[in-house]
Amino acid sequence: MTTRTSTSSTPEFADLVSRVREVVHSTESTDGDTTAEGVSDVATRVGSVLSDRLADGLPLPEHLRWHDPDHYTQHIVHVEPSGTFSIVALVWLPGQATPVHDHVSWCVTGVVEGQETEEVYEVREVGGRSHLVRVGETVNVVGDVSALDPPGDIHRVRNSCQELVVSLHIYGADIHRLGSSIRRAYDLPTLDRAE
Ligand SMILES: [Fe+2]
């Protein structure tokens, strides 16, 4: 992954930041609460904010489409001064993908351009060895938003179209301090589904 710091000064982005800030600060005391799907209240509400903002329009400054021919790119667009959340734009060329990974915090994603596929994995013991088992797959198009919360958030995201893909990712973590929200990348043999 290539990382750049790339701010956005559009009013629409400023509106997104202020609405996410409102949600994160108002749910700090209830951060441990989860829905039936295991996603925290804060991630669900941030997902609604991002979904609404994408529906209302979120113009993408051209510099946030900058990409690296060798790796997918992470543009760090906003890190909240208190460190409570960060917003990055991830850019994939056709064929580029993240490793299989999980996160240190809740994570909300929304597609701004193109089509990406999110594969969900579980680690299972098969034949006495740890394997990654692919247990689900979702195709996300422009405007689609998804929320993940550890534990149980092992996934991989890949460009699944022939064009550039850009998606916004909001994490409940300080990306300047950590460099990335990835807790662990999993390099294990992969099975499509356990019998
Ligand atoms: Fe991720």
Automatic annotation (TrEMBL):
Position of the 3'-(S-cysteinyl)-tyrosine (Cys-Tyr) cross-link: 107-171
UniProt xrefs under Gene3D superfamilies: Jelly Rolls
Keyword field: Dioxygenase, Iron, Metal-binding, Oxidoreductase, Thioether bond
Entry-linked InterPro entries: CDO_1, RmlC-like_jellyroll, RmlC_Cupin_sf
TM segment ranges: none
GO molecular function, one term: ferrous iron binding
Origin: domain of life: Bacteria
Chain positions recorded as Fe cation binding sites: 101, 103, 155
CDD domains registered for this protein in UniProt: cupin_CDO
Name of one Pfam family that matches: CDO_I
Similarity field: Belongs to the cysteine dioxygenase family.
PANTHER family in alphabetical order: CYSTEINE DIOXYGENASE, CYSTEINE DIOXYGENASE TYPE 1
Protein name: Metal-dependent enzyme of the double-stranded beta helix superfamily
Native source species: Saccharomonospora azurea NA-128
